[in-house]
Amino acid sequence: MENSINTTIKTLFIALIFIGLSSFALKKAIAPKEQNGFVVLELFTSQGCSSCPPADAILEKYAIQNNPNIIPLAFHIDYWDYIGWKDPYSKAEFSERQRNYAALFKSQNIYTPQLIINGKTQLTGSNESKINTVVNKELAIEKKNQITIKNATVSKDQLNIEYSITELSTQTNINIALVKKKEITNIKRGENSGLTQTNYNIVYDFKSNTPKSQFKNSASFHFKSGWLADDFMVIVYLQNKNTGEITGAAKTEIN
Predict the structure, then answer these.
(1) 70 near 39, Cβ under 8 Å?
(2) Rounded CA gap, 24 and 147, in Å?
(3) 3-state class of 86 per DSSP?
(4) Contact call for residues 111 and 79 (beta carbons, < 8 A)
(5) Is there a cis peptide before residue 113, judged by omega within 30 degrees of 0?
(6) For residue 222, what are the β-bridge partners?
(7) pLDDT at 1 over 70
């Protein structure tokens, strides 16, 4: 009887060791790979487009992850404003930015929802499986972030930004976006009439120019009275003028 008990205890002990090793191996197998790259997601969208809410929802998922290596932006275009609902966040300059991408990609058409990933891959903004595949691929590519945002502070009605870059090139533009983290809109007309739409990472204002210095660069935006700094963020990214490829990116909260 004693031998039987000892045998049972030994069997249980070995089984527990096996389970522990198996659990460790499983955790190791499913552990996420180290993310050495970055991803800038530029979604061209509109509250007046019935195809856009699914794409907005995908961008929302990336936004609320708050992954420092993933930078989502929502550019609300204005060319659907005539069909019943004027998107309150739309700007003609954002439509023009999308047209510039179309020229780079040698495309005759622009549409919503369109997602541009790192300035070099274009996808339908609602195709989640393809988007996830490209995002994971880009995150696995080791890249050197060339931007350091030193400061983003509000003084009276002005937001002042200071940043530095590691490489200076006449072939590179620096893009700076003032981004509202979240807005909720009750859409009363148009294709999405009756929808309560939540939008994330809305580009409120945008500037693009050639940086003149490596170590001391600045930019400013009008910051309206009544706006709360905590509701906004600043996104800065470098982009090749000829290819459109984004070569560095950073984001920061506003003080």
Answers:
(1) yes
(2) 38
(3) coil
(4) no
(5) yes
(6) 158
(7) no
User: 58: Cβ–Cβ under 8 A, 6 or more apart, which residues?
Assistant: 125, 126, 128, 131
- pLDDT above 70 covers what percent of the chain? 86
> In this structure, are residues 46 and 77 in contact, taking their beta carbons and an 8 Å threshold?
yes
Kindly state the tokens that stand for 39: 């991803």
Please give the sequence-ordered ranges of beta strands (E in DSSP) within 110-195, or none if there are none: 114-117, 121-124, 147-155, 158-165, 172-186
At 12 the three-state DSSP class reads: helix
Report how far residue 89's alpha carbon sits from residue 203's, in angstroms, rounded to the nearest whole number.
8
Q: What angle do CA 183, 49, 135 make, to 5 degrees?
A: 70
What angle separates helix 53-65 from helix 128-139, to the nearest 10 degrees? 30
The helix/strand/coil state of 131 is: helix
Burial 9-36 (b: 16+ CB within 10 A, else e): eeeeeeeeeeeeeeeeeeeeeeeeeebe
pLDDT tens-place string over residues 74-88: 999 999 999 999 999
Q: How many CB atoms lie within 10 A of CB 215?
A: 11
Nearest-CA neighbor of 39 among 125, 130, 110, 131?
131
List Cβ neighbours of 206 (8 Å cut-off, separation of 6 or more). 75, 93, 94, 97, 175, 176, 177, 178
End-to-end Cα separation, the chain, in angstroms: 73
Q: What is the CA radius of gyration of the chain?
A: 23
Helix, strand or coil, per DSSP, at residue 18: helix
The domains of the chain, with CATH numbers, are 39-253 (2.60.40.1930)
* Amino acid letter, 80: W
